[in-house]
Model the fold of this input.
Amino acid sequence: MNNNPFDLTGKIALITGASKGIGASIARAFALQGATVVVSSRQFENVATVADALKAEGLNAYAIACHVGELQQLNGMVGEVTQLLGGIDILVNNAATNPVFGPLESAETVLFDKIMNVNVKAPWILANLCLPSMKERGGGSIINISSVEGLQAGMGLGLYSTSKAALIMLTKNQATEWGKFGIRSNAICPGLIKTKFSAALWQNEQWTRRLVESIPSGRIGMPEDIEGIALLLASQAGSYLTGGIYVADGGYLLTH
Ligand code: NAP
Done:
């Protein structure tokens, strides 16, 4: 008998934006716990590299290219995973975009549409597409990667912040509507994590020094810092957790 409540043996996990950063870290953490992970992002070479590295460690991984803003590609990806692996137990909506920095009034409407399409509409559609499979399998776990920006304004990231707040409310509604199917939905709100996505922030040394001095943990986060909470939410250990918003920010929100 397996006494490990974090064990994911036999589970199929689909992770978007998993060619690097937080998504790649989560994929490896899940695979190390026995899950078969589907590593997805826009660039096939990038996800293939991640999947090959996992396979070289003896883990189960598949690579699928998918731009989450393209409905046809979302449909294709879920169809392919279902056909190839038989279904989906865990969905991590991690891919996101943030093409604009600055005042709300100066952003072009086309950028608003792009941000909402990738950060909100795609997680909604992808979860809907995974729903039949999760229902059939008697349950599932959806993990939406939001941000501290979804809870607090002020960094000049107004539209991104608005999209991440919407993702939090999508999470709560998924949890409310799909709990009866054994499906849980939770959101993780990372603080500043050192990845390509946030490079414009942490590459500013002066700004980062001031930030680090103000964070109770005294450092900015690394992608691996998000693995533990993701694993908890994905696994049996988190079986009573749904509709929750989990901040992983080294205490940033306490002081900002
Ligand atoms: P990252 O290291 O830059 O990785 C982003 C990933 O998303 C890459 O795999 C990228 O691969 C993929 N991607 C980008 N656009 C995509 C699209 N339209 N469709 C499919 N895949 C796409 O970023 P990260 O920092 O790990 O960010 C992951 C998540 O954490 C995001 O939701 C972000 O909002 C959130 N977050 C990050 C921070 C932070 O400080 N880093 C803080 C709070 C929340 P391709 O280029 O191959 O598509």
In short: Strands lie at 12-16, 36-41, 60-65, 90-93, 140-145, 183-190, 245-248.
